[in-house]
Specification:
about 550 residues, alpha/beta, Alpha-Beta Plaits, five-stranded parallel beta sheet, four-stranded antiparallel beta sheet
Length: about 550
């Protein structure tokens, strides 16, 4: 690897770099990972068993598969929708088997019966690929290939060992190949020698119910099914992958709202979760955000062309037509100052149409708790009355004469009371006119908030290529390319610049439309050509030419 197996990772809180332990992802393929304290891709599409999250959906299937293989049951089936993690689960189960278990993984169901037997012989180590291409088994028939396989399986019995055959995408198995699988699953002496596991989409269950496949269906003893994750499972899945990729100390997290957005966009499918979270981390890294918020997730969903509408902000509720909007109660008006007079109190009589109109005062009895008159008592000597009147007043008691007013003061008090009544009537009329005007105006309807436009982009189909090795010079890379080309591989050298400006040349093999196709050549590169570090890389977007 470049720099002697060391990569550069930014120090937390700054842009300076520091050495860190190398990872299988390689320096040239890391973008946001070092910024967030991750040493490898947390949401890669490769079926890495280290990233298996034993959710409520995956843990029972894992235990059933492992126990079924160890107990050497009959046929075992594992079904689930596309992207639910079947291949990752199978690879994790294989890692938990002991060394006495030989395994063969067939990712391509579109093979002949002879090709299936050849792959079993090679994976179990009975023959080499060179023997099949140029040796004694070149052009061998099915019968010729069956004998060495049977001899190998018989040799496992004294060693207390056995073999496992796993066929992926088994819903596409043709009838002749299913018949071969049935025959292989029946190979047994005192105990079963070859365990067969069929992995496929839900159509596999219906396929096995066909009348011509009832013999195969009757031999199925363990049936496992994977379903999408629920909301809590999505949160645990994201946290688990970040924890593994960050070696237990990632410096990034998804907010609760962001995780809910991931669940809405993926519907709990692990493969879609990986794509969405990877794009969201890219956007968060571009914005230098320490935390992944919902906006990054919704942008990632649009980038991937997933037709999911983000929740619109809640619009303010509008009152129904004919009803008035609730308003705060108006403060009670302060009581008007009372003017006490010797005249009886009056009140305005409302008009027939509801509005107060000035009318002839109506006599009202004085209240029981009325305060005494504020008018100061007038001395008798200060009242200018005629002589005859003065003589008549001598017959009154002093308490009675203290409240007697003159005609002039009585006129002023009547004028003040009339003015107050006029003001009250005018205020009532103004309030009535305002109410009538408000009821005549049509209610203002606020327009609905514009819906957020969601652009539907063409779906992104990931392509796969095998990264064989990386070199600092083009000469060494071209030498490996020529070697692989002579062996029949589509090899090429691609120059890659790292973030420090250093250029490396990496050797890639092929552009594969599925990971299964790439895995088939990957096994050959590792076993025949010795490239043990070769791995499958995912390229989302334009293929590398």
């Amino acid at each position: 690897m470049p720099f002697g197996g060391r990569i550069l990772r930014p120090v937390s809180g700054g842009s300076d770099a520091q050495p860190a332990s190398g990872s299988s992802a390689g320096l040239f393929s890391l973008t946001y990972e070092p910024y967030y304290g991750l040493v490898e891709k947390p949401f890669s599409l490769s079926a890495d068993p280290r990233f298996l999250f034993r959710s409520r959906e995956h843990a029972p299937a894992f235990d059933d598969l492992l126990n079924g293989i160890r107990r050497r049951e009959g046929l075992i089936t594992l079904t689930g929708e596309i992207g639910t993690g079947k291949t990752t689960l199978i690879r994790a189960v294989l890692q938990h088997l002991d060394r006495r278990t030989f395994s063969s993984f067939v990712p391509d169901p579109f093979v002949s019966r002879e090709d299936l037997l050849k792959k079993l012989l090679v994976d179990f180590g009975v023959v080499s690929i060179a023997d099949l291409k140029r040796g004694s088994l070149h052009g061998a028939s099915r019968t010729d290939l069956s004998y060495p396989l049977y001899e190998f399986l018989d040799s496992l019995a004294p060693l207390q060992a056995f073999a496992v055959l796993i066929i992926d995408e088994a819903q596409n198995l043709p009838l002749p190949l299913l018949e071969e699988v049935r025959i292989l699953s029946d190979l047994e002496g005192r105990e079963k020698l070859l365990q067969v596991v069929l992995v496929g989409q839900p159509e596999l269950r219906g396929h096995l119910k066909l009348p011509e496949l009832r013999q195969v269906d009757q031999r199925v003893s363990v049936r496992c099914e994977l379903t999408p994750l629920d909301a809590d499972g999505v949160r645990g899945y994201i946290e688990h992958r970040l924890h593994v990729a960050g070696e237990g100390h990632p410096s990034v997290e998804f907010s609760r709202e962001a995780i809910d957005a991931v669940y809405e966009g993926s519907k709990g499918t692990p493969r879609l979760i990986n794509l969405i979270c990877d794009r969201a981390l890219h956007r968060g890294y571009t914005a230098r955000a320490p935390r992944i918020e919902p906006a990054f997730v919704w942008d990632a969903i649009r980038d991937l062309g997933l037709e999911v509408t983000p929740p619109a902000p809640a619009a303010p509720t509008r009152p129904a037509p004919g009803t008035s909007a609730p308003t705060a109660p108006a403060p009670a008006p302060a009581p008007a100052p009372q003017v006490q007079s010797a005249e009886p109190r009056t009140s305005a009589v409302p008009a027939p149409d509801g509005g107060p109109k000035p009318t002839r005062p109506k006599l009202l009895p004085p209240p029981a708790d009325a305060a005494p008159p504020t008018t100061a008592p007038v001395p008798r000597s200060a009242i200018p009355v005629p002589r005859s009147d003065r003589e008549m007043l001598t017959d009154f008691e002093p308490e009675q004469t203290a409240h007697v007013t003159t005609p002039a003061s009585r006129g002023w008090m009547l004028a003040g009371a009339s003015a107050l009544l006029a003001l009250a009537a005018a205020g009532g009329m103004l309030a009535y006119l305002r109410l009538e005007a408000a009821t005549d105006i049509s209610r203002l309807e606020l327009p609905a908030p514009p819906a957020r436009a969601v652009a539907t982009l063409p779906a992104i189909v990931p392509e796969f290529a095998i990264q064989v090795a990386s070199f600092q010079t083009n000469t060494r890379a071209q030498r490996v390319v020529q070697q692989l080309t002579r062996s029949g591989y589509r090899a090429r050298a691609v120059a890659v610049d790292n973030r420090l400006g250093r250029r490396f040349v990496t050797v890639l093999v092929g552009n594969y439309m599925s990971e299964h196709d790439a895995a088939r050549d990957l096994a050959s590169l590792r076993q025949q050509h010795g490239y043990l570090d070769a791995r499958v890389e995912v390229f989302v977007g334009p293929a590398i030419r």
